[in-house]
Design goal:
32% of the residues lie in helices and 19% in strands. The N and C termini lie far apart (59 Å). The structure holds flavin-adenine dinucleotide. The site of flavin-adenine dinucleotide has 39 residues, from helix 6, strand 7, strand 13, helix 16 and strand 16.
């Protein structure tokens, strides 16, 4: 079904293009396509969803990526068209044979493929513990992986916001934190939590995640419902958890089930090996069987929230062991008394964030290994706000060098993996294939790429890599010139239930104070609203398999042009806030889209501890082969900046131990 949007309406939304075609991915159209897509090779899938007629090596173009803002990240907003086009050349088989004319780019002791937290920590571990030289390759124009930021200047205010990885808790052992020169404890970091210029005080959360559904006490959250019985067709309900959803237009049974789930205590006996037991079923099966959730509205509440937090998809496909961090199932973890799971760290377990999210941490790691790479001193202000000196990333003679915009397309041993002493890494940079040689390699990207890139892995390993499935997320940062429309509603965060709409949540973040300065926090001044958008409304509870849901969701992400995304978010904001003084033409100063096609691994039952006596795929991948080891957050099954660092460090230690 195609919906034509009138030019008048586009004009009202502040869109310059008067005729944007909006494809409707909700409901039957895309769901029906699931089985067909499953049989298509990835390029076919992408081409089928791309309206533009491009050459085969240009699946998507700049009109797909959209503007990237200003600063060091301005050409690196999510997976841009350059990143996607290079990656798809691998899937398409372009590099099945080593081409002629490969540029010899030198020899290193360690090559790390991937420049997110896992790769940065892998390189840092070599910097700290290894001897010789290390080269880090990443396919984006900027380091950080999913921990990047967007920047814009609006009415003289420099705004930062996360592209992905955002909130952090203190690392469990403080060790890495100290090594990167970050403040020694929470007391040394401060946030501006009180907004100026509000009629009444507002609770503002410290990061984008905590108030999505975990700690409602940190924010004043408004829930937006479509409601045909009300005069303007909708209803805002403030902080409904506080009074059992009394004013929400929901059936009484749904309200009861929501409250039961939220306050559930597990009193039944359960196996001592509760983790493996939970890993034997889906989260939805657990909620149905042990919590008694029957109503689809409860899953509509949960699905986008859990998808945006960890697995990218909903309750019906993920392992209940991952569910143990979410409502209902978390009661088992609590009842187990397992110290790993029972929250006892007080203020150090709070979720907080840097101006550009966890980009602030990634920049500290880079500054530690490559002091000249970020201008200024090694202090909070300079590391967070200093400009990158691109030349300093890849200088001859440095122990660690970083080469960006470089997609590894082939990794293979020089001879049999069991006996070879050298690995060859071919990468694509500026359209040309280059090759480096190394004693060892850490693959610090996800298995969706690795399984196509490592060419001589044993069958057991490629089989294990094939059991990793991934889901997409779209992160939008919308700069608004003011947020009086939210203040008028008395809210700092908004959650909406609108299957026909776009997104599901956004909110303010308390800005970090650095050297006494912070981004504005005043309803009359600009701010950046961050939207983490999974595609659960398209696929969850559809009956499609995990693999089908993954493909349909990713196709939905890929199919939209930037203009379409812009249209949808303007429309959504107008529907929610138009009656409260929001005017998209006047109030939106910029929209940056960051697409992550494989944002998260989707852990199916058995992902953590294996099934039918077979080892879990992640354990097989962690072993590696020959001189190649694997370290990526997805191997933990809980993707966080901390788990990424643990996996990257472990992989380099494996290499060093085998040398
Ligand atoms: C939208 C979103 C929000 C998140 N929010 C949080 C949060 O609030 N807090 C938190 O702790 N975590 C969060 N995370 C989890 C996040 O995954 C981790 O924090 C961390 O950033 C992952 O680091 P990584 O190095 O394991 O993976 P990545 O960041 O994925 O880094 C891997 C890098 O390797 C590159 N690569 C892969 N293959 C190749 C190749 N062949 N050649 C060259 N380069 C390659 C990739 O493109 C990427 O740049 C979020 C994730 C997403 C997607």
């Amino acid at each position: 079904m195609k919906k034509r949007v009138s030019a008048d309406f586009d004009e009202q939304l502040g869109l310059s293009d008067p005729a944007i075609t909006r494809r409707d991915f909700v409901g039957g159209t895309m769901l029906g396509a699931g089985a067909v897509l499953l049989d298509m090779a990835a390029p076919g899938m992408l081409r089928a969803s791309e309206s533009a007629n491009r050459p085969v090596d240009q699946l998507v173009g700049p009109d797909w990526t959209g503007p990237g803002g200003i600063g060091d990240y301005n050409k690196s907003n999510g997976n841009t068209h350059e990143v996607v086009n290079a990656a798809h050349s691998v899937y398409r088989g372009t590099w099945a044979q080593l081409p002629a004319g490969v540029v010899d780019a030198g020899r290193f002791d360690l090559v790390v493929v991937g420049g997110g937290f896992s790769g940065l920590m892998a390189a840092y571990t070599f910097y700290r513990d290894g001897n010789g030289s290390c080269l880090l390759l990443d396919n984006h124009p900027m380091f950080g992986g999913e921990a990047k930021q967007n920047e814009l200047i609006v009415d003289g205010h420099h705004l930062h916001a996360p592209q992905g990885s955002n909130g952090f808790t203190w690392p469990p052992d403080h060790r890495t934190w100290d090594e990167f020169g970050l403040p020694k404890n929470f007391d040394e970091l401060q946030w501006q939590r009180k907004a100026s210029g509000t009629v009444a005080p507002l609770r503002i959360p410290d990061d984008s995640y905590s108030s999505m559904g975990f700690d409602m006490s940190e924010a004043d959250t408004g829930f937006f419902y479509r409601d045909p019985s009300s005069a303007n067709g909708h209803r805002w309900v403030k902080d409904p958890w506080a009074n059992g959803f009394r004013d929400a237009p929901l059936p009484e049974l749904v309200k009861r089930e929501l409250m039961t789930m939220q306050h559930f205590e597990y009193r039944e006996p359960f196996p001592a090996d509760w983790k493996r037991w939970m890993d034997s079923m889906t989260y939805k099966e657990f909620l149905q069987k042990y919590v008694g959730i029957t109503r689809s509205e409860v899953y509509d509440y949960l699905d986008p929230m859990i998808a945006a937090t960890f697995p990218g998809l909903g309750c019906d496909v993920i392992s209940a062991y991952m569910g143990a961090v979410f409502p209902g199932a978390s009661a088992v973890a609590t009842a187990s008394g397992d110290p790993e799971w029972v929250d006892s760290e007080g203020s150090e377990s709070l979720y907080v964030s840097f101006p550009g999210g966890n980009a602030g941490i990634a920049r500290h790691i880079v500054k530690t290994m490559l002091p000249g790479a970020i201008e200024g001193e090694h202090n909070l202000n300079d590391v967070v706000y200093g400009r990158v000196d691109w030349k300093a990333l890849d200088r001859e003679g440095q122990k660690v060098r970083m080469r960006l915009g470089s997609t590894a397309v082939r990794v293979e041993h020089a001879g049999s993996p069991d006996a070879a002493t050298e690995v060859h890494i071919t990468y694509l940079k500026d359209g040309k294939p280059h090759r480096v040689r190394a004693k060892g390699v850490v693959m610090a990207g996800g298995q969706w790429m690795n399984r196509h890139v490592v060419r001589d892995a044993p069958e057991s390993l490629t089989h294990a890599m094939g059991q990793f499935h991934h889901a997409p997320i779209l992160t939008l940062n919308v700069a608004v010139k003011h947020w009086r429309f939210m203040e008028k509603l008395g809210i700092s965060c908004a959650r909406w239930f609108d299957r026909e709409g776009f997104g599901w949540y956004t909110g303010l973040r308390a800005p970090m104070l650095i050297d006494g300065k912070h981004m504005p926090l005043d309803p009359s001044k600009p701010t950046m609203l961050t939207f983490y958008i999974p595609f659960t409304s398209t696929v969850s509870q559809s009956g499609l398999t995990l693999e089908q849901q993954s493909l349909v969701a990713r196709t939905a992400l890929f199919s939209m042009s930037y203009a379409e995304i812009e249209h949808k978010i303007r429309e959504q904001l107008t529907a929610m806030f138009g009656d409260y003084g929001f005017d998209p033409r006047r109030d939106i100063a910029g929209i940056i889209s960051n697409r992550w096609g494989h944002a998260y691994v989707i852990p199916q039952p058995g992902f953590y501890f294996g099934r039918d006596g077979a080892p879990a795929p992640r354990e097989v991948v962690r072993e590696g082969y020959g001189q190649v080891r694997f370290g990526h957050s997805e191997l933990s099954g809980f993707q966080l900046w901390t788990t990424s660092c643990e996996e990257g460090e472990r992989a380099t230690k494996q290499i060093l131990a085998s040398a």
